[in-house]
Write a structure and sequence with these properties.
The chain has 180 residues and is mainly α. The chain has seven helices and two strands, in the order ααααββααα.
């Protein structure tokens, strides 16, 4: 008796040494359904990573990313942090304010321009970074960074078409995924 896809039989635990054969799940024929499922996979992976970060480190994903950037570039200012995270300066300022309030970051005004701050990670922030799972920037930026240039350009073009079809306000592009 052979077991395979062609003549698959339901699994019966009473049949010794028989491996259950699971028929392949039929992929939906409609490309929009397949694509929607792929988006769900991406979004769920991102959400799962941010939940794990919060559970293990006790801070949100955007805060963790900000801490990691400041650790890598001590003395960076709010503008530099905003550029590194590709977010609006106000968003970066709000992230810093929260981390300063939690004694994870210090914001010192050392320059003649009293508006400019120099950031550094404090011991509590270093402790959070030690506990946190990587990648600090998040799983999506990390995965995108692993793709080759032509794939990224094609993906960018195709997502541009989707964004146009959605008619969304592109100002939301500056909000970290961890804060959505």
């Amino acid at each position: 008796m052979q077991f395979g896809i062609a003549n698959a039989r339901p699994y019966d635990a009473r049949m010794p040494n028989k491996v259950p054969v699971v028929p392949p799940v039929a992929e939906p024929v409609d490309p929009e359904v397949r694509t929607l499922r792929r988006f769900r996979l991406v979004f769920n992976a991102v959400k799962a990573h941010f939940r794990q970060v919060e559970r293990q480190a006790g801070v949100g994903g955007a805060q963790l990313w900000a801490l990691s950037i400041v650790r890598a570039a001590p003395g960076i200012g709010i503008g530099g942090l905003a550029r590194a995270m590709d977010i609006h300066q106000t968003t970066a300022s709000n992230l810093v304010r929260g981390l300063v309030a939690q004694d994870m970051l210090a914001a010192e005004r050392n320059s003649p321009d009293r508006r400019a701050v120099s950031l550094k990670v404090l011991p509590a922030g270093r402790q959070v970074l030690r506990k946190a799972p990587g990648p600090f920037s998040g799983v999506l930026p990390d995965a995108l960074a692993s793709l080759d240039r032509s794939t990224l350009e094609r993906l960018d073009r195709d997502l541009g078409l989707l964004i146009a079809a959605l008619g969304v306000d592109e100002h939301a592009a500056g909000i970290p995924l961890a804060q959505m």
